[in-house]
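Why run this: before we spend reagent on co-expression, it is cheaper to look at a predicted model of the complex and decide which construct boundaries make sense. The entries below are exactly what would go into the expression plan.
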Amino acid sequence: MIDSMKAVYDEVVTRDPGQKVFHQAVHEVLETIADVAALPKYSGASILQRIVEPERQIMFRVPWVDDAGNVQVNRGYRVEFNSALGPYKGGLRFHPTVNLGVIKFLGFEQVFKNALTGLGIGGGKGGSDFDPHGRSDGEVMRFCQSFMTELYRHIGDHTDVPAGDIGVGGREIGYMFGQYKRITNRFEAGVLTGKGTGWGGSYGRTEATGYGAVFFTERMLDRKGKSLDGQRVVVSGSGNVAIYAAQKAQQLGAHVVAFSDSSGYVVDEQGVDVDLLREVKEVQRGRVADYVAGRPGAKLHTEGSVWDVPCTIALPCATQNELDESHARTLVDNGVLAVAEGANMPCTPEAVEVFQAAGISFGPGKAANAGGVATSALEMQQNASREQWSFDKTVAKLEIVMTNIHDNVARTAEQHGAAGNYVLGANVAGFVQVADSMLAHGVV
Ligand code: GLU
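The model came back. Tokens follow.
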């Protein structure tokens, strides 16, 4: 990293020494945008120093009563990172690993990702260390109501528009929307996205992140004269990103053979039964073992990693840093052609280096998983015009957005002498868009 970038990075680390994943996300960006960020128009206005510092960070207590009558206390977060391009936009994550550093890393990624969509959305992220697993619907509802009782004062359809992330799906968005509506006495549809399709949600939002990652993969393959047809695909995770990545890959002729959750991974050589997986995960809220119980021939593995399963396409759709250098080497040895991040930063920096050195097409999350938030922006458009588009119309728009992101990122990489480096292309293209708007707005 060149000296001027290193100085910015060191200051980030000194300010918040414990926020490792945030440092990792900042490091990757600074490393790839140096020649652009060093231009006098940006450096003279301290754009870098401003872009790594969130505009606002909110932390609050979330007290709630569990089914046994005990008072529980969690911590809530909303990091409003950058509003140069539009209202803060990004999901809420409910998971025991959530802390301020995790939310800052996710918010930082979101700034660049949202810029790449071209849909006029700033970046933010939030969540809580609350763990919805094993909690009753009543407990989840009371938690969501308490969370929104503080959050409502910070959000709004022109201010900050949260959505889902890990642990936050349609159920949680419903409870939070209900509480927002009750407190404010406003049916403000555009304040949250990922709503139910019966009350202001967009068709295709649930599928969008997974579908988008597969559309992005298709474009990367196409650039190399290949297609998804006949490819052998492994996804990690089994949440909505993984499920719908598997579904779209199958629709495009690929053979999806494995998925995972924190209890292990499943290999299903007949091809994953997406309807069964949806039933197990979305309806029963079960574990991958429940899939195996209903699927003769599928095998559950509790040792090793899903990345040991040979494949030509790898779609990490679980969580940050789930795929490390040794996994990457295994994938390369097994003949992987393309890797696209359905989750946020699932590959470690060392893993990314292995893929790039081996000439594997690597789509970073900022570009490859932007389909979810892009469709959230389409949901905001529908809410603003009081319309609801069909599933097919929405997915067709998503596909155009993903193609544009791919082409913009690929072109930017080429223009900077790094053809095929989607990490550099995404960071530079996202940075320029945000930085130019920040310049136009003056020192704010
Ligand atoms: N949590 C998703 C992401 O990482 C979606 C955010 C949204 O729809 O606002 O991009």
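The chain has a mean pLDDT of 98. The pocket of glutamic acid is lined by residues 89-91, 163, 165, 193, 344, 372-373, 376 (CB under 6 Å). Bring this page to Monday's planning discussion.
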